[in-house]
From TrEMBL:
Keywords: Transferase
InterPro entries referenced in this protein's UniProt entry, alphabetically: N-acetyl_sugar_amidoTrfase
Organism: Nereida ignava
Name recorded for this polypeptide: N-acetyl sugar amidotransferase
Phylogenetic classification of the source organism: Bacteria, Pseudomonadati, Pseudomonadota, Alphaproteobacteria, Rhodobacterales
UniProt-recorded Gene Ontology molecular function terms: transferase activity
Length: 405
């Protein structure tokens, strides 16, 4: 047994760290984006690697490039849209989003190329950045959309974010839950039967089987006792017991059931199934058609200026993925750009090694204030989540045992 294999791996991660031979993602990337518990026996699935050493996401992109008939897929899109199209002036679809490049592209192309009448809905960021708020308003005013901006109970959301950071090192978990719920929930509320998200996360390494169907897996909406639902790693019943809240306060986080969605005729689709999805091309389209603007400076932890720039907390989400899985934001960005032919692997390796471990200092004070932690408490929490098979400590501090080459 090698030294690495003998080291404990948290979260059910593979002990042996491997990097994709085509892009730069590692086999430590989780295939779930909602919750990872800090329990060593909690086995969680990670991105798959084939015998050739290439990850599932890269293999699917080869499928996209060479084996999918995109004209046939677009015909399927038109047929789906026609099924739900209304001619009485009412909304015929819901498009969830923040006004970032992806949702700006999705809503605009559906309305102006395919003639739909979408209602855009937004689960508010924790803390808007200046450029994020500007792009959100441009999306509505220049892109030309109706919008509902839903902002959850701020006091509760801060608590849930704090709990998620402390218990899961996943400060985005409550936001991700709300973001996924907002589309179907608003569809039910307004009697709309079609919800269209942009890309399926399976494109980037979640369950690859989901790439081959246009609709969202309804297991997320399976019926459950709301009091037993976990937010921030804690049961709602326990949060109600320990803090001054009632079950009613949690209504925005409790998903509609698959049965209720089926009864209402609601279907949740991904535009990326029907049209070839390329984040950089979405950016160009959004700039040209909705007034979207990149940031004036790159995002800490990566080289990009235009991805996920609306929330001050967002960069800490990627920092925590670095801590838990050894994968930072530059890895995610450069891996998808290799797959889409924007850069080559050698360039990606350089970018990862230069930026991936950069600490997001820019909004650090805002983040600490938001979740009510001191600098010392922040680092004490972070260090508890470093898996021994990924990190080693010396007099010079913490360092990753494995970096992409």
């Amino acid at each position: 047994m090698s030294e690495t294999e003998a080291l404990e791996a948290f979260y059910g991660l593979p002990n042996e760290v491997r990097f994709c031979k085509s892009c730069v993602i590692s086999n430590q990337r989780p295939s779930s984006t909602v919750e990872f518990k800090h329990e060593k026996e909690d086995k969680k699935k990670t991105i798959g690697f084939a015998a050739d050493g290439i990850c599932d996401a890269c293999h699917y992109h080869q499928e996209k490039a060479h084996r999918i008939d995109w004209k046939k897929r677009e015909d399927q899109l038109v047929a789906t849209l026609d099924k739900f199209r209304r001619n009485d002036g009412s909304y015929d679809m819901i498009v969830p989003g923040s006004g970032g490049k992806d949702s700006a592209y999705t809503s605009h192309i559906l309305k102006y190329r395919y003639g739909m009448n979408p209602l855009t809905v937004t689960w508010a960021p924790h803390l808007y950045t200046d450029i994020g708020w500007q792009n959100f308003t441009n999306w509505i005013h220049e892109g030309g959309h109706d919008n509902i901006l839903f902002t959850p109970n701020g006091r509760l959301h801060r608590l849930l974010t704090r709990l998620a950071f402390k218990n899961l090192l996943h400060p985005f978990q409550p936001f991700i839950v709300g973001q996924r719920i907002i589309g179907p929930a608003m569809a039910q509320k307004y009697g709309v039967q079609l919800v269209m998200y942009g890309e399926n996360q399976a494109e980037y390494g979640n369950d690859p089987n989901e790439n081959f169907k246009p609709t969202m897996d309804t297991k997320f909406f399976s019926a459950q006792d709301p009091m037993q639902m976990r937010l921030g790693g804690v049961k709602i019943a326990d949060i109600i017991r320990d803090y001054d809240y009632t079950l009613n306060d949690f209504a925005p986080y409790i998903p509609p059931t698959a049965e209720s969605l089926e009864k209402a005729g609601v279907e949740v689709h991904y535009l990326g199934f029907y049209l070839p999805w390329d984040p950089q091309e979405c950016y160009y389209y959004a700039v040209e058609n909705t007034g979207f603007q990149a940031n004036s400076e790159r995002t800490p932890g990566t080289y990009s200026k235009y991805s996920s720039i609306d929330d001050k907390i967002d960069m800490f989400h990627y920092f925590t993925t670095l801590i838990k899985f050894g994968i930072g934001r530059a890895t995610y960005d450069s891996a998808q750009e290799v797959r889409n032919g924007k850069i080559n692997r050698e360039e990606a390796v350089h970018l990862v090694r230069k930026y991936d471990q950069e600490f997001p200092q820019r909004y650090y004070a805002d983040f600490l204030d938001y979740i009510g932690l001191s600098d010392a408490e922040f680092w004490e929490t972070v260090d508890q989540f470093r898996s021994p098979h990924l990190w080693q400590h010396s007099d010079n501090g913490w360092a990753l045992r494995h970096v992409v080459e």
